[in-house]
Amino acid sequence: MTFLKVQDIHHTYFTKSNAVTALSNISLQVNEGEFISFLGPSGCGKTTLLSIIAGLFQPTEGRVELEGKQVATLKSEIGYMLQQDYLFPWKTIEENILLGLKINHHLDEERKAYAKDLLLQMGLSDVESLYPKQLSGGMRQRVALVRTLATEPKLLMLDEPFSALDYQTKLHLENLVSDTLKSFGKTAILVTHDIGEAIAMSDRIYLFAPSPGKIHKVFEIPEELRECSPFDTRNHPMNAEIFQTIWKEMESLGSQESHKSTP
Predict the structure, then answer these.
(1) Which residue range or ranges hold the ABC transporter domain (predicted)?
(2) What is the domain partition of the chain in residue ranges?
(3) Over the stretch 143-184, which tens digit does the pLDDT of each residue have?
(4) What is the model's pTM?
(5) If residue 147 lies in a helix (H) or strand (E), which one and from where to where?
(6) Is the alpha carbon torsion for 228, 229, 230, 232 positive or negative?
(7) Which of 6, 81, 170, 254 has the least C-beta neighbours within 10 A?
């Protein structure tokens, strides 16, 4: 059985004066343990689709199933990591990482110990009693990842989680997140504008076209690259060719939009 199934998704935003179609005819399937990316220009509906998959709201048409069940009934089994860490500044790091467990009424000594062990695996020792303002941006994002993983989600959603970080920290976290998700066998979906990041982290890339958002092309990353760390993938001889191929497709999408807007 397919782990995640997105079937015939259409979504339209309605206002008092008009209707804007954000997504049209989106269908895809993801196997358990895969890491896929949604790549494309602004306004192509990537984050809207991510929110629909997460069960945050219902699409105008279509359905999303996780292990054969509609995601609307499985919100606690889906983790979300955003560009901002959204740690509560008045809570300690320990209180922050246990928050999801507490909200879901799953907090016990075993899960508390598991969350603290995740901190150590992320290279965050002796920070439990600190507050978010005492940590760097990269450290806060690692805490946010621990908070998400502590609830043991079946599916992890990553909405540009590294875009606000400096380049060196971004590369380090790409490796860390990739290694962590592989070791736990987690399934993940990344939304990004960064072609290099998508290639480095993904098994498969969905390139979206805008107006309305739809899947333009799908790129399968060669197994030789999938077996590498994100950092090594960026330096692999095959990377440049794949990057250029995707870049040209994105350029063609930009040209199409320019022609549409020209009177």
Answers:
(1) 4-235
(2) 4-74+154-261, 90-152
(3) 998 998 898 899 999 998 888 888 888 898 899 889 888 888
(4) 0.90
(5) helix 137-150
(6) negative
(7) 254
